[in-house]
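Troubleshooting entry. The earlier prediction with zinc ion gave an output that would not parse, so I re-checked the input for stray whitespace and re-submitted. Clean input:
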Amino acid sequence: MIQVFRIFFSIIILNSFLFSQDTKTQRFIAITFDDLPMNTKYLEGGNQWIEQTQKLLNTIKKFNIPAIGFVNEYKLYVNEVLDSSRLKALQIWIDADLDLGNHTFSHPDYHNTENEEFFADIIKGEKITNELLSQKNKKIEYFRHPYLHTGNSLEKKKALEDFLKEHNYTIAPVIDNGEWIYARAYENAYNKNDDELMKQIGSEYVSYMIDKTIYFETQSVKLFGSEIKQILLVHANMLNADYFDELAEELLKRNYDFISLKEALTDTAYKTEDTFIGRGGISWFHRWSYTRKVDKSFYAGEPEVPKSILDIAEVESE
Ligand SMILES: [Zn+2]
């Protein structure tokens, strides 16, 4: 009997230790949104994009998040004509004093595009964003790779790095995740007017993102000995317009402070060498781990998007 009590009490002590570690660690995270003004399949623009943007940015303001949005300027055009409502959606980011970065003009895949063509697309993607930023005496500083494709050979990777450096760009690394799949599933449910399913996807999305965040907290300790300042990738979409509020609440419960991309990049972890030239658009943590030639088991435990969500999203795999 005494033995049983001993085990019981040691479990309680261990749990409270783990729990206190969890809640006392001060954590930092930068929030970055890709595919501005909006990544959507069913919302055709006009007032819908403006409404969704306002909804998302209300959350951003509520939590005082110094977020940055990465723009694809081709989305501002309808039949090659600049669309005033889509432009207005982007203006809302500027009016909210948020930063904007370049995600190329037309979202090409660097791995399937000639270098010069890709570089021209980056330059083409600066025009309106810089005009908007100039209202706040700012200009574009950050670049986010479409599909997180950074180059599938060392030469190609270096060529892009050199181009970005010459044009005063700072690369925005990131924790990748399956948020885009939940977002597709969410829009498909919206398109079927299935409110119940939307709710279910929304709440599963929030738990998945927290599990993913916890996974990278652990990977961070394994790789660097402590938790680094994280940079999260999500998209400007309907899912986040509706559920980023809940996700932000959960991040606060894990003691995250929302910081700017600039502040996150002061973490020396982002100076870690990255020689990854695989085809995939993977998290920078995995690139650093790959560069250090860690054992496969090092990556174990990463949460995956469940089959049920992949099916609703009509996506085959992550
Ligand atoms: Zn993108």
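This one parsed fine. Residues 27-313 form a domain with the TIM Barrel fold (CATH 3.20.20.370).
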